[in-house]
């Protein structure tokens, strides 16, 4: 897949694909490469770009509210996930987090209970070019824990599920020594449950963060925090085995 950009227009297309727009018919060459210019039949020039992380967030087909880039950044930064790591993810959803993790070089096994959501996530992994690095399974991770415990341990566990505490309680048997578990939780009550479970399970370095971000408006009048949008997204709990 390649991103075709003209001013504020962006189209995600495959080589050889044709798209009709009000700017003309856009025919993507089979050999298109990032940096190329592709013109419509009316002469409008689009720039071809390779997909980056933020582009995936914008162009994935969504099955719900995906994890925001700022939350994903905290997961990446606080766990140090990198090439060669094995990640167990639960609550795939749109698959944005799984795609980011795979693009960092990790191999990801992710569970999604909704079969339709899982199908969409598999398609999104193909869009991201990481379908060989992400194994999207349909099912409840809590029902697979015994089997997973018998296999190779994981370097990181990421959770975006209501039953996160039940996975955290078993996480020491799933992780390598020094590995991380992190849970993305929408409510304070659930956050406390995860923290208390992590303490009972013997985890160390337990940290909890509320992720808030304020955009800045900068124009000829001056600079100030934006009054638009919602700064809060959720809570992240990190713990280390």
From TrEMBL:
Tree of life domain: Archaea
Q: Which GO terms describe its biological process?
A: tRNA methylation
> Signal peptide position in this chain?
none
Alphabetical keyword list: Methyltransferase, S-adenosyl-L-methionine, Transferase, tRNA processing
Q: What region holds the tRNA (adenine(58)-N(1))-methyltransferase catalytic subunit TRM61 C-terminal domain?
A: 70-219
Q: Which Pfam families match?
A: GCD14
Please name the SUPFAM superfamilies in this protein's record: S-adenosyl-L-methionine-dependent methyltransferases (SSF53335)
- What CDD domains does this protein's entry cite? AdoMet_MTases
What is this protein's record name?
tRNA (Adenine-N1)-methyltransferase
Q: Which GO terms describe its molecular function?
A: rRNA (adenine-N6,N6-)-dimethyltransferase activity; tRNA (adenine(58)-N1)-methyltransferase activity
Q: Which GO terms describe its cellular component?
A: tRNA (m1A) methyltransferase complex
């Amino acid at each position: 897949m390649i991103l075709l950009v003209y001013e504020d227009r962006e189209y995600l297309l495959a080589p050889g694909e044709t798209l009709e727009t009000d700017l003309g018919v856009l025919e993507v060459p089979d050999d298109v490469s990032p940096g190329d210019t592709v013109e419509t039949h009316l002469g409008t020039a689009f720039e071809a770009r390779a997909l980056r992380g933020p582009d995936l967030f914008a162009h994935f087909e969504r099955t719900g509210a995906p994890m925001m880039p700022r939350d994903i950044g905290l997961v990446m930064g606080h766990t140090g996930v990198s090439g060669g790591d094995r990640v167990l993810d639960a609550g795939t959803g749109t698959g944005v987090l799984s795609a980011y993790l795979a693009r960092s070089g990790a191999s990801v096994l992710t569970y999604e209970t909704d079969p339709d959501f899982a199908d969409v996530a598999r398609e999104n992994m193909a869009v991201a070019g990481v379908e060989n690095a992400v194994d999207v399974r349909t099912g409840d991770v809590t029902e697979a824990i015994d089997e997973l415990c018998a296999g190779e341990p994981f370097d990181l566990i990421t959770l975006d599920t209501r039953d996160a505490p039940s996975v955290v309680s078993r996480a020491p048997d799933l992780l390598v020594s020094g590995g991380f578990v992190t849970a993305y939780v929408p409510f304070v009550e659930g956050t406390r449950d995860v923290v208390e479970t992590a303490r009972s399970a013997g985890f160390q370095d337990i940290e909890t963060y509320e992720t808030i971000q304020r955009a800045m408006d900068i124009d000829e009048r001056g600079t100030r925090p934006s009054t638009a949008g919602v700064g809060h997204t959720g809570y992240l709990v990190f713990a280390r085995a």
